Every structure is written in C-alpha cells, then in structure tokens.
TrEMBL record:
Iron-sulfur listed as a keyword: no
Predominant place of localization: membrane
Transmembrane segments: 56-77, 86-103, 123-143, 164-185, 191-210, 260-281, 293-309, 329-361, 373-395, 401-424, 436-459, 479-501
Domain of life the protein comes from: Bacteria
Protein location: Cell membrane; Membrane
Organism: Niveispirillum lacus
Record protein name field: MFS transporter
Classification via NCBIfam families: yjdL_sub1_fam
Membrane topology reported for the UniProt record: Multi-pass membrane protein
Length: 526
C-alpha cells in the first residue's frame, strides 16, 4: 500500500487520510505562531522603542490571551459551529492578523528625550495581535479535537501514534519558523519576518480547506438551527462571526491594557479555585477529593514551570540580543533565531525520553507524575543557573558565549519533556468524570496565567529607559544576572521541595489497583 493515498482509513502512513491536512495545517499555524514569538519582543523594543518593562507587559497580555481564548472557542464549536467551521474562522482571522503585522511604518525616534512614533502604526500592531488572539482561540483546541475524531474506534491503537505524528507538525513548524522568520525579520526588515509567518498561515488555511472531505464528526451539531434566521434577520452562524469581530475589538483594547488582563485573570482564577475547592470538599468521595486537591496542586506547579520556561520569548531573547556573543563558525546568529534550540532539542530528545519512560516503567522505576514535575522545575531553574555561570566568566565586552544559552535551552527542554507530556494525561486520570472538560479548561487557564506572570518577570529584567535608551552590555549584565539568580534560587527550592513530597502526592493520587477498585465502589455508593 502507498504511504500516502486517498484511502480514508489508512491513506496517511497507515493512519486516516484526514490526518495529513490536519498535520500540515497545524504545522503552518505553529509556523506563524512561533515566527511571531521569535520576533515580537525585539520588534517592540527595537522598532517601537518601548521600554523592556512595557514590552514585557504587552507580550504578557498577548501570550496569556492566546491561551485563554481557546476555552471560549472550544465551547462555541461544541455547541454551535462545529470544529471545521471554527478552525476555518480561526485561520482566516490569523491570516488577517499576520497581514496587519507586516504594516510596520517607520521606526520610532527619540526627539528631545521623548519617543515619537509614526502615525498609528502601534495601533495597527495592537489590532493585528487581537486578530491573532481570537484566531488562535477558534483554531487551537478545535484542530486537536478533530484529530481524535478521525479514529472511529476509541480503542484504535493508532490513536496515540496519530497524535504523536500530529504534534511532530507542531515541532517542525516551530523549528522552521524560528529560523526563517527570525532571520528575515532581523536581517531584512520586520515586515518580511511577519509577512513570511502570514504566508505560512495562508498555506495552512488552504491545506485545511483541501482536506474537508476526510474530516469526521466536525460539522455543526445542529446545522438547521445554525442557519435559521434570528429575530434580527441574521442567522445564528453570522451572529457568531459578528461576535468574533467584536471579540477582536475587545482584545484590541485588552492587549494594550495589561492591568485589566491581569485583573481578569486573577478574578477568574480566584473563582475557579474557590469553586473547585468547594466541589472537592462537598461533592466528592474521599479518594475523589484527594485526587482533585492533588491535581490543583500540580496545576499550580505547572504555572511555576511555564512562567520560567516562557522567558524564552522575552527576557532570554533580549539577553541574547544584548549580552551574548552569538558568533557561530564565523556567522552571527540573530537573537530571535537562538530560540530554535528548544524545538531542535525537542525533535532530537523526545524519542529518547519516550523510550526512557517505557524502559523505566518495565523495571518499575519510572518516576511518578509529581516527581517528574519536581524534576522539571529543577531543570528549568538550572537553565537559568547556566546563564548565571556564563555571566560570571565574561570578558570586557560583558557578553557570554553562545554555549551558555544552548545549555540553558537544553535544560529547559529536558524539563519540558518531563512535565508537558504528562500534564493532559494527569487531567484525564485524576479528574472526576463529570467535570473533566472543565478541568481541561482550567489547564489552559493555568497556561494563560503562566504567560502573564512570565511577562511580569521579563519586566523585572528591564535594561532600558523611558527615553528609548538601552543600557550598555556592562550595565545590563548585572540586571539580567540578578533576575536569573533569583529564578535559580526560588525555582530550585520549589523543585527540590516537590521532589521531597512527591511520595506523599503520589499516594494522594490513588492510582494503584486497590485504590482504583475502592474508588469505583465509593463512586457507585455516592
């Protein structure tokens, strides 16, 4: 049988044919997303001359809203639009956003100590980010859901390998875009880097539309109701499209008012935590309660990890730009391209880690989920430790060797491989069945909060002034070193503590056979 054919069941390397367009659509969507991630912080500080502090908050608002919107996009798709229409809408909005980012205007100038920007190009940038945020909201969760629906039998052994193939598209898109968009943007002009990301998204949109005939169970749940006219003369479907545009307008304002985003995230988090705590204490059996509270603890630890990990797109990128000697065999690696080491190490090490966990499990030595979380936090802390060590051995130019950034990204990636693959699995295993979907939403909400906190920390590492001036490498190095040292100490301490209490957390998860049997009986009795 050919590796790729029109066979709907086994037309893509033995997997359903619909996996191919979903794979390439996700690859191009991630290409555009990580192209933005590579360039955004540098674009804000170099083109618009925002201070590091202000740029950090803009980045925080943008990144956190990117992870909050999929919860809403998923709900709209489940109840009204269906996955396919939601992904198409998201892709179109993303294309609009990336096209907008290509309109950069002239660089900002400092006149009499005041930063002056041309026209309203900063507002065009904010609006473009808003289009991208809402677009990701409709696309991100729904395209992943569509992969699972390709496999009619829930026990199909191809399901997990299918998701593995799908997520290789994520890493491939990230790897290519960080190199190409970053290099183009810094070498020839920001509009070319952002423009290439937009071209990638257009390719993703075309690829996704081409595969429509192979998708399963992705149409609207009630198509007649969706197309029926409402009291104001528009169909429900067009009302949703209109609401999406209103969502863009709302996010246009939110992305430039970070204090509102922070307040909203804090308010929602408090409501969710209080609600889940009440549910755990009042509505659950003892074992369910233990699992729920343990899961909340683990989600909080994931926030710690991702807050530090996401310094890659902010403070670590600025550190690479200002305090790193990026020469590599006679070539100067652009600061944005340095981020490529994370997806590169993912591609190289993910198969090794997958094999390692299986091998350790066979010997009864696989670390528990809490221990993996603790090890992940320790490794991300040690990554900052590598930068601190590198900063201690610099010459008169106050620039560290590229090897220290490579080592930092290596440690951050090994930490990611300890934590990220087990996160969603943990939600599925520990959630009370009747609120599993809600807990998935909480998991995405935690990522949103982590990205916001990451921007705040990036702001603490500010090495610029309100007048648009950047500190010299000799002046900025102590600023970065102080922040990275604090991250090393605090995260390292948290990671060690988690490792020490991991046996207790593992016990509270009640995942051994006896406890599972007891839990089943308790659930039936309840």
């Amino acid at each position: 049988m050919a590796w790729i054919s029109n066979d709907p069941e086994r037309g893509f390397f033995g997997h359903p044919r619909g996996l191919a367009p979903l794979f390439f659509a996700e690859m191009w969507e991630r290409f555009s997303f990580y192209g933005m991630r590579a360039l955004l912080m540098l674009y804000l500080t170099k083109h618009f001359l925002f201070t590091d502090n202000m740029a950090g908050f803009i980045y925080a608002s943008y990144a956190s809203l990117n992870y909050a919107m999929p919860v809403i996009g998923g709900l709209i798709a489940d109840r009204y639009l269906g996955n396919r229409k939601a992904v198409m809408l998201g892709a179109i909005l993303l294309v609009c956003g990336h096209i907008g980012m290509a309109f950069e205007g002239s660089p900002a100038q400092v006149i009499d100590g005041v930063v002056t920007r041309e026209g309203h190009y900063d507002q065009i940038m904010y609006l473009s980010l808003a289009f991208i945020i809402v677009g990701v909201g409709f696309l991100k969760s729904n395209i992943s859901t569509m992969v699972g629906k390709l496999y009619v039998n829930k026990d199909d052994p191809r399901r997990d390998p299918g998701y593995t193939i799908f997520y290789m598209g994520v890493n491939l898109g990230s790897l290519l875009s960080t190199i190409l968009c970053g290099w183009l943007g810094e070498t020839y002009g920001w509009k070319y880097g952002f423009g290439l990301a937009g071209i990638g998204m257009v390719a993703g949109l075309i690829t996704f539309a081409y595969g429509t005939r192979w998708y399963r169970e992705s149409e609207p749940p009630n198509p007649e109701k969706l197309k029926a006219r409402t009291a104001i003369g528009l169909s429900q479907e067009w009302l949703i499209y209109g609401a999406a545009i209103l969502g863009v307008a709302l996010n246009w304002q939110l992305v430039q008012n970070h204090h509102i985003v922070g307040g909203l995230l804090l308010s929602v988090t408090l409501v969710v935590v209080v609600g889940l705590a009440w549910f755990s204490l009042a509505q659950c059996t003892k074992i369910e309660r233990d699992r729920m509270l343990t899961m909340l603890c683990m989600i909080a630890l994931s926030v710690v990890f991702w807050t530090l990990f996401e310094q890659a797109g902010s403070s670590m990128t600025l550190f690479a730009d200002r305090n790193s000697d990026r020469s590599f065999f006679g070539l100067i690696v652009p600061a944005s391209v340095v981020q490529v080491f994370n997806p590169l190490f993912i591609v190289l090490l993910a198969p090794l880690f997958s094999w390692l966990w299986v091998a350790l499990a066979r010997k009864g030595m696989e670390p528990s989920t809490p221990l993996k979380f603790g090890l992940a936090i320790i490794q991300v802390a040690l990554g900052f430790g590598a930068l601190v060590v590198g900063a201690s051995v610099v010459g008169e130019d106050a620039k560290t060797g590229l090897i220290w950034l490579v080592l930092a990204y290596l440690l951050h990636t090994t930490g990611e491989l300890c934590l990220s693959p087990v996160g969603l699995s943990m939600i599925n295993r520990l959630s009370v069945a009747r609120i599993t979907a809600l807990m998935m939403g909480v998991w995405f909400l935690s990522s949103s909060g982590a990205h916001y906190l990451a921007g705040i920390i990036a702001g603490l590492a500010s090495a610029s002034t309100d007048g648009g001036a950047i500190l010299s490498p000799q002046e900025s190095l102590p600023v970065y070193t102080a922040v990275f040292t604090d991250l090393l100490i605090w995260a390292g301490g948290i990671g060690v503590l988690v490792c020490l209490i991991s046996p207790w957390l593992k016990k509270l998860m009640h995942l051994d056979a006896a406890d599972m049997h007891t839990d089943d009986k308790n659930s039936k009795a309840a």
